[in-house]
Design a protein that fits this description.
Layout: H1 6-24, E1 25-26, E2 29-30, H2 39-42, H3 47-53, E3 57-70, H4 77-83, E4 90-106, E5 110-113, H5 115-118, E6 123-127, E7 133-142, E8 147-152, E9 175-180, E10 188-199, E11 210-213, E12 225-228, E13 233-240, E14 251-255, H6 256-267, E15 279-283, H7 286-292, E16 300-305, H8 310-314, E17 321-325, E18 328-329, H9 333-341, E19 348-355, E20 358-365, E21 378-379, E22 389-393, H10 396-402, E23 411-416, H11 421-425, E24 432-436, E25 439-440, H12 444-451, E26 457-464, E27 467-474
Antiparallel strand pairs: 1-2, 3-4, 3-6, 4-5, 5-8, 6-7, 7-8, 9-10, 9-12, 10-11, 11-14, 12-13, 13-14, 15-16, 16-17, 17-18, 17-19, 19-20, 21-22, 22-23, 23-24, 24-25, 24-26, 26-27
Length: 475
């Protein structure tokens, strides 16, 4: 039990006295005390808002079957040493369940939730607020933005929905409500404010751009609704910052504008294709701002451009600082990617650029990432170090798919099979083959030609992230 010291008690009395004095007399004079004249003056409640919004928030239960081999001897070090994986016992099946929330956005049963709520599920069940249950079909699942779109068959019945709001109109300090199914206890409503906007350092998905709130969000709230005081969807609750697993007042929601782009693609009957920037950059620090002659740190310093990319074609140059897209400020590469990702392929964006202290606005044509060169996906085998890998030529489309941020040129490892030479040597998906026996590798054809020639010794160079790793095999 925490005891209150006399100092704390005296300070509490001081604060209460000060507040009471402020009520009795303000700089404008005495506050007139009046008897409340109506029920509305006595009661302030979110109940009407909740009554309207809560029926559109659903519970989602997913199940998947995991196959594993079980043997009572596998825990014995003796048997594991001499028999290894060959003595793992008979296969058994285990059912893994998870729970989350979702939001009905169309009356015919279209529902949005988080991708991680239904990922790899064999069976998905949606439970409405009135406790009716429906099997759900996955219409779209996008791991990059952690959003999934489900559909349930309502047999023609119209369901309650939440209207998608304009997440760009939300301001820090706005009141919001979070509705979901925390810990599986049932539908729960919590209140708070918007604590911050454009949070990009969360690392939850590839497109990091979140609304931060202090409304209590816990496991099971994922996929639920964050709503504004006009009853519109501000975002989909996606993650929390926590050291214990419970809410500490730092929750993150995917903005409604991103939800809208995913839903529009699904309703259009096609796969969502996001515009390709063809560029990479870094945040402008105070030191960079000083060197560039900027009044303050702002924007994204472009340090790499693809010659065929839309920014290069629009006239953006290495060393330029991009500060806004269609008037929306960007302060880091994540927010730049987000602003571009919201726009439709085939349109045009206005990019604000600072070059040598002068600001200019450039029209940028929005195109999808091209399949150039063809990826030529190939599985390698034989007596050579890359046996067991699946490799491909890097092109902009593939780079977007796998989240590769480097220069779109070279040969990338996509898969590594278990129990193969490549796995034993430590190769990983995402590795880029640089050289084999001193020969530069720029295409899959180069790699196939080199490894087809038997060698007593293999000298390999592979790029992993920002490092180039070297390895010698045999000889």
């Amino acid at each position: 039990m925490k005891l209150e010291t006399p100092f704390r008690r005296s300070m509490s009395r001081l604060v209460l006295t000060s507040l009471a004095a402020g009520l009795a007399l303000s700089p404008l004079g005495a506050v007139a005390q009046q008897v409340p004249q109506s029920k509305e003056q006595i009661t302030l409640s979110y109940a009407p808002l909740v009554k309207r919004a809560a029926p559109a928030v659903v519970n989602i239960y997913s199940r998947r079957v995991i196959k594993q081999r079980v043997s009572p001897f596998m825990e014995d070090p003796f048997f594991r040493q001499f028999f290894g994986d060959a003595f793992r016992g008979v296969p058994r099946e285990r059912v893994e369940s998870s729970l989350g929330s979702g939001v009905i956005i169309r009356p015919d049963g279209l529902i949005v939730t988080n991708d991680h709520v239904i990922k790899d599920a064999d069976q998905i069940t949606v439970v409405l607020a009135d406790r009716r249950e429906f099997p759900a079909k996955v219409m779209s699942a996008d791991e990059k933005v952690d959003l999934a779109v489900l559909r349930i068959d309502t047999k023609g019945e119209k369901l309650p929905t939440l209207e998608l709001g304009d997440s760009d109109s939300i301001q820090v300090g706005d009141l919001v409500l979070a509705i979901g199914n925390p810990f599986g206890v049932g539908q729960t409503v919590t209140s708070g404010i918007v604590s911050a906007l454009a949070r990009t350092g969360v690392g939850v998905s590839d497109f990091n751009f979140f609304i931060q709130t202090d409304a209590a969000i816990n496991p099971g709230n994922s996929g639920g609704a964050l709503i504004t005081m006009d009853g519109k969807l501000a975002g989909i609750n996606s993650a929390i910052y926590s050291r214990s697993g419970g809410s500490v007042g730092i929750g993150f929601a995917i903005p409604a504008d991103m939800v809208r782009s995913v839903v529009t693609a699904v309703e259009g009957g096609g796969k969502l294709v996001r515009p390709w920037m063809g560029a990479s950059g870094q945040p402008v620090t105070q030191e960079l701002a000083t060197n560039l002659g900027l009044p303050r740190p702002q924007g994204v310093l472009i340090n790499q451009l693809n010659p065929k990319g839309p920014l290069e074609q629009a006239g953006v140059k290495v060393g330029d600082v991009v500060t806004a897209v269609n008037g929306h400020l960007v302060d880091d590469p994540e927010s730049l990617r987000y602003r571009i990702a919201l726009l439709p392929v085939g349109g045009t964006a206005t990019v604000t650029v600072i070059r040598k202290g002068a600001e200019t606005k450039l029209p940028v044509k929005l195109i999808g990432p091209p399949e150039d060169p063809p990826r030529d996906e190939t599985a390698l085998d034989g007596r050579q170090p890359f046996a067991g890998t699946t490799v491909a030529n890097i092109n902009p489309a593939l780079a977007e798919e796998v989240g590769y941020a480097g220069n779109s040129d070279g040969v990338i490892v996509l898969k590594v099979q278990q129990g193969t030479t490549a796995q034993a040597l430590g190769f990983q998906p995402g590795d880029v083959v640089v050289k084999v026996n001193g020969q530069a590798i720029s295409r899959v054809a180069d790699l196939k030609r080199v490894v087809s020639q038997p060698q007593r010794r293999w000298d390999l160079a592979v790029r992993r992230g920002d490092q180039v790793l070297t390895l010698s095999v045999g000889g």
